[in-house]
Structure formats: structure tokens, C-alpha cells
Amino acid sequence: MKQTEFKMKTEYESKILNINVEDIKDRLEKLGAKKYLERSMRRYVYDINPENKKSWIRLRDDDEKITLTIKEISSYEIDGTKEIEIIVSDFEKTNELLKKLGFMPKAYQENKRISYRLDGVEIEIDFWPKIPPYLEVEGKSIEDVKKTIKLLGFEFSEATSLSTKEVYKKYGLKIHDFKELKF
Questions:
Q1: How far is C-alpha 45 from the chain's CA centre?
Q2: Residue 4 lies in a domain
Q3: Which of 18, 54, 21 is nearest to 35 (CA)?
Q4: Is 141 part of a structural domain of the chain?
Q5: What is the CATH number of the domain that holds 145?
Q6: What does pTM read for this prediction?
Q7: CA dihedral over 174, 175, 177, 181, signed as positive or negative
Q8: pLDDT, tens digit only, all 183 positions of the chain
């Protein structure tokens, strides 16, 4: 039997924190970005190994599809996150299956997102409970992300590739202190 090797995909993404949402929407419109989705998302987060805080499982329903993802952070650089993701058919049943396998959710989280595309780059306006909205730019390369950030009127030095956990920490909050994070 042939064994399949799974290769983790590199995410090329960066964030601009504490944005003015209406200003960003205006900039995106002027650049010709296409808004394609506005949605509420929900997720469960599970530890793979409680001692390794840089690797976890995420089960997410983004109103379009339900995905099960393993994420690993090697650094907080633009290309420091790797992931393997599959589409699953049922949010609650997948949560139950993970529990049967011994993975208990450490948190339930909700957020809202407005999604745009510009020249093949995904641009998201993210809203999370208890913190200001931020912009997330994800492309196929570091150059795509840097170029789009510049087009939006920001310097790359203003961007960060911190995880959501680290963004909360910047605002003096520990995301995992909230067993449920809802609006």
C-alpha cells in the first residue's frame, strides 16, 4: 500500500492592527478590490500536545465551508505559519469525533470577517471580541503581501505576523483565559 506524505503549506500573511474600517473599505474600493464575502465564523481550538503551544488543531465553520486544520508556528515572520487543512461536512460531529480521539476543545471562539480580493491576494477585515478590528493580507508569496500592504497605504514596518493569540496579548488580554469568546 502506497503511503501518502502530507506536506504542510506555508501561509504568507501579515496584519495591520487597530484599523479604521471605513477608511480601509474606501481604499479597497478605490484600488478595485472585489468584496466577495461577509460572514460570521466560529471555531473550536484544541491542543495537540499541551506542552507545545506552537502547534494546535482548529475546527472552523466560516459560513462557506467547515475546515479541520493543524497549524504550526515556527516564527512570527510573514512565512512562519504552516498548515494542513481538510474540508469536513459537519461542525458538531467533527468536534465529537475529536473528543472521542482525546482532543478536548480548550476554547470556542467567534469572529466576523469581510473578505476582498485584489490581484489574487486575499484581504480580510477581521473583527474579534474585546479588541479593535485589524486587516489581514494573505498572498501566494512574501512579495505579494508586501506589495498589497504598500498599495493600501501602509509601510511594511507597520505590519505584523503575530498570531491571534499574540494580538490579544498586545492588548493586555490572554485569549485562552476566555473558554468562550463571543460578541
A1: 12
A2: no
A3: 21
A4: yes
A5: 2.40.320.10
A6: 0.88
A7: positive
A8: 555 566 788 999 999 999 999 999 999 999 999 999 999 999 999 999 877 778 999 999 999 999 999 999 888 888 888 999 999 999 999 999 999 999 999 999 999 999 999 999 999 999 999 999 999 999 999 999 999 999 999 999 999 999 899 999 999 999 989 999 999
CB atoms within 10 A of CB 161: 20
Length of the chain measured in residues: 183
Domains in the chain, number: 1
Structural domain range at position 107: 12-175
Query: Quick check: is 127 in a domain?
Result: yes
**Alpha carbon of 133 to those of 23, 31, 32, 63, 136: distances in Å?**
12, 21, 22, 20, 10
Residue 170 lies in a domain: yes
What is the amino acid identity at position 12? Y
Please choose, from the candidates 35, 14, 38, 12, the residue with its C-alpha nearest in 3D space to the C-alpha of residue 25. 35
